[in-house]
Each structure stands twice: as C-alpha cells, then as structure tokens.
Amino acid sequence: MSLGEPLVELQAAPLGLDVPVRDVAILDPEDPPTAAPGELVLAIGARGRAALPALRAAGRAGAAAVAVKLDGPGQADALREAATDAGVALLSVRRETRWEHLDSLARAIIAGPDAPDAPGAPEPNAGDLFSLAQTVAVLTNGIVSIEDTSSRVLAYSRSSDSDEVDDLRRLSILGWQGPEPYLSKLREWGIFQHLRSSDTPIAVEPHPELGLRRRLAVGIRAGAQPLGTIWVQEGAQPLAPLAEQSLVGAARVAAAQLVRRRRELSADVRLTQTLLTGLLEGSTGPQSLATHLGLDLRRPATVLAYSAHTTDVLHRSDVTGLISVHTAARHRTALLAPIESRVYVLLPELPPGLPMTTVRDWAFEVVAAAREHLGVPLRAAIGSTVDGLAQVPDSRAQADRILDAMGRGGVDLDVAALIDVQAEVLVSEMLALLQERTGLRDPRLTALTAYDRRHGTRLAESVLAWLDALGEVRVAADALHIHPNTLRYRVRRAEQLTGIDLAQPQQRLLAMLQLRLPADE
C-alpha cells in the first residue's frame, strides 16, 4: 500500500516492502497498546518515544506497520531501532496531517476502487479518482490533484520528488483542502469564475513570492453544474505539449465518475459495461444502451479496437486509463469496454461526414501516448462507420478482422482501417481457413514442409521467396542471403520431391498461400 508523499515517510521496514496491509487500527493513547496481524496501527496522541509500547505490541501481534508523529528529528533513531527489533514497519507522519484523513485514505486504498466506500472516507469512489489522477500525471508530465467545488482534495497523483511540489499543493494535501490565503488569490485572479463557467483549461502563472509554481486547471462539470476541478502543477520539467487536451478528457472522465457515483456508481457502471459489451458482441440490442445513456440510435457510430503484443497488458489500469482519457478528450460520449485481450472504444453520435482521417488521428494519439508514457506498444484498428447503434457489431467485427491481420504479421502499421490493409486482411482470413480446414490443403505442399522439418532443409521457404519475387531469382536469393544457383537448386529439388509443377498458375497460387502457414502445421 502506498500513502505517498507528503503525508508519511518510511523510517524502517525490517521485513521488506511487500508486507500486506489488511486493515487499519486506531490506537487511542488511553487504550492499552494492542494490534492484530496485518494491521496498520495509527498511534494517535503517542508522539515520539511515547509510541515505543505501541511499536513493541504491534511487533508481538504481527502487525504490518505503525504510524507515528514525531516531536523532533532526534526521536527517529530510537523509534527505528525499536521497530527493527520488533519486526514491524515504522511510518513517520507529518505533524500537519490530520489523522482522520490518513485513516480514510488508508482504508480507501486497502478496499480498492471497486469496494463500497468506508464510513468517513474522504470522497466516494476514491480509488477510481486516484487512478485517474495518476493517469493524468503521466500524460501531462505534471503533479495532479482533483478537488470538489469546495476545494477539498478528492485524489492526487504520486510524486517521487518532494522538491517539485509547491506550497499550495503541499498544504492542500496535508489539510485535504486548499488553504484560504491561496484560494482568495485564485478568486481574485478570476480562476474560479472561469472554472465554473467554462470547459476549457486555464493557466495560472507562477508566483514565486507566494510559493506557487505554474499550473493548469480545468473545471469538472455536468452540463452547467460544476462538480470540481483538476489541477496540474508543473514540476521540474515543463508540462507536456498536449497537457491541455489531456485535461479536457480527464475532466469528462471525472465528471462521469462523480455523477454516476451519485446515482449508485457501482451498479450503474456494471450495467453500462454489460449493455456495451452485449452490443459489441451482438447479444444485446442497441435500445437498452441508448435508453440508459440517452444516446441517439440513428446517429453514425464507429468502433476502435486496441491490442498489444502481450495478451494481459491491456488489463492494466494505466493503459485503459490512458485510452479512456485520450478518447474522452476527443469525443464526449465515447465508451470503453475491455473484452478478453482487447479494448474497444465505441464512438456514438458522430457528426455526419466526419473524415476517417480525424478518427485515425485520434487513434494515433493514443498509440503514441502509450508508447511514450507507458512504454507499451499498441495496435489500433478502425472499424467501419455505421449508420446507427444497431450496426455497431458490424463495425466491431471489421475492427477485429483488421487486428487479426495485424497480429499475424505482414502489416507494418500501428493504426489501420480496412482500406489500408484490405489485401492483408483477406489473405489472413484465407490462411485462417486453411489452418482450420486441412482438407483444403495440397498434400504435396504439406509433405514439403514435413521434409524440411525432418532434414533441416529450407526448400519450402525458398520456393515461397521465389514465388513472392515473381520468379526473379536474384531478388529472391538476396532476400534469403544465398547464391542464386543455390536458390535454383532448391526450387528444382522441391518440384522433384513433391511432383508439384510451379509452371502451373493454380499450383503457384496455392503454394503462395499454403506455404505461409506456420511450419508446424
């Protein structure tokens, strides 16, 4: 579990950093020092050396960690020694930090984003908002906090360098609310007025005399109703060029989370995901999703599909979060659904006549951002633009056909629509058919690949290279890095062994297809 800067600092971890935390316990100074296995013990009121009994009791009980406030720097050494002897982690808590906020944050992190909110939690659905804040930090190269309309902190991103954090950010997180002297300045500069009335980000220039670094802010709004604000503070490095665009998308994602939470978030999200997945798979009609979200059934729509080189990477929250934020920045009503090893984005209610190049650019932005910020290589396929939600399964099917072809190789593109890879898609599907139905294969070609496996030869590979080069021996030999005479010998030898006649167009055509199957077939 990570509570993050600047609330706590790790002073000792005698059992390492992987000790699981199962619960949070508040130890009142008037209570006897007790603990339970796996607990994070908040030693309230027991400052400095007064926390030594709590540390020893926590160690005897097998607690995970003890959090203590220090009166001075000299106390840390004695507490670290006691924590090491007791075999329990020691966290020092900043003196400005309010215990109830630390307790609420710890419980929210332990519960996770999908768990019901614990009593006293700082804000509904904190886990989702913390994940969103971290995604925005990655995309903007900044330090992020999400606040409600009263400037109370709902979630914030982690920062590895405390020197990058300015006074406003530090004091806001420590007190879980923006300090009034700073807030009055923001009101004086017209920042809050802009955030309440506009969907566009606004820049706040640096004020070193006030301890403020440059930052961007965007209002979180549901229609005309303000819900909160996302702040991005610039650290040691400048903000990313597309930081403002990322903020727009993040504000829309945050608005959906906050509004849906007020409508019983978990049930609402599950229903949306169920209806969306059913529509994409063709098992549910479009009317239910349209009614649930207020979508127009008859407006154009398209499906984007994303896949990665590994089958599990798209289930990581940072990747799906990145796709969600970037897509929401470009299309307000975009919907996202992970299905098996792919992530699908439904773009409903598209403007009539929206150019394919526009959607392609959106997909390129996601792929480039995933590579730059997360080091994840994504492929994206653009399904056909259909007349309404009823045809969405057709768009999804086309996107899948494209991704299937891209995954089998031979397509040197990160983003593709059917027009870009029509031939590759059709050949890929023919090969899939040959793989599935062995009766459609020429047994002589099957025997040739079997001969290569038994004898360690490369006859089938040489024949295919010669066919791909349209009979140009030197071109094919160069591709295989062999002498032209060696290639001529291999082609003749393949014909002699199998009885195939490569002078016949039909046999050449079948060979060009079948020899592309994996060698173990």
From TrEMBL:
Residues 288-404 form the CdaR GGDEF-like domain. Pfam families: GGDEF_2 (PF17853), HTH_30 (PF13556). InterPro entries: CdaR-like_regulators (IPR051448), CdaR_GGDEF (IPR041522), PucR_C-HTH_dom (IPR025736), PucR_C-HTH_sf (IPR042070). Residues 459-517 form the PucR C-terminal helix-turn-helix domain. Belongs to the CdaR family. This is PucR family transcriptional regulator. It comes from Kitasatospora xanthocidica.
